[in-house]
Amino acid sequence: MNPAAGQSLTLDDIVHRYAASTAVDHVTLEVKAGELVALLGPSGCGKTTLLRIIAGFITQTSGKVVIGGKRIDELPPARRDVGIVFQNYALFPHMTVAQNVGYGLAARGTERNAARKRTAEMLEMVQLGHLADRLTKQLSGGQQQRVALARALAIEPRVLLLDEPFSALDKSLRLDMQIEIKRIQRAAGTTAIIVTHDQEEALGMADRVAVLSQGKLEQFAPPSQVYDAPASFFVNQFVGTANVLPGTLDSVTGDSATVRLDGGGLLAARAPIGLAPGAKVVACIRPENMGLVDSADGALQGTVEFGMPLGAIIVHEIRTRDGIRMKLSEARAHGTAARETGTPVWLRPLSPASVAVFAAP
User: How many domains does the chain have?
Assistant: First the structure.
């Protein structure tokens, strides 16, 4: 990796309004040089608007965009040194692969021999040198994506923007291309921002993930932290799957808490931020953080409704005594079948630290 190739990006208190609606609501992000950051969220959360602001296609209502320590708000898109891979790749079908990759260099007036050398380097990086003379319309979707990536990187952008780059690919090809883009981005040392609504894509590729909801930044952290320690109930529900148990915050001591469940019983959890005993809350536990136990002591009682063997794991849906449906995933040994419908079980969290508590929505 060549950290010097990419530059830092700062979004400083960005606000963008469309008439009476606010698309981006006071978002601040500090992206390190050479880092790959994912903007993750549902449709309409503001992630594409942020990408277009960085690129210069729209001008924010307020706030600053800074690349490499210099403010770029007044610069037109062509002078921002930002590379873009569009959702539909936007390749020229009448041009060869090499001509597409070299297009940005030619537009900038790069000397012909230097442009030819840079184009060849980019084609080798994306492993398409043997297809340099082929028309892009004769390529597969994955190959077209790599051409678009090579074209964006050829101009040595300070920041690379990727707008839902895998949406046009078959599911079987997406993982391969996610790994490939990550490899190329690392090799080039380019600072990159990827926009996606796919949580697996964001968690798998990004160094840090910015989770957005209704224009607001909910959390900006490494993928493991976003998944294991969500900062809000929205993040908890949007990223991954979680069981939700309503209750009342019973006590808080240091980093620990107890929740008195509406269905009965006490549940140990990690302490929430900004909530006092007596508050109505929800306790959230991911399916892989639930375990089956032999004793009813301190456990939730339920009945298996059905089980789904998913290769190396089995996911059971269990209905508790008070009617709450919970999911529990466990490793599946060779030859093991799902538990039969109607089987009584007792389950509890694997540890209090795996139980997140939020104010009741």
Answer: 2
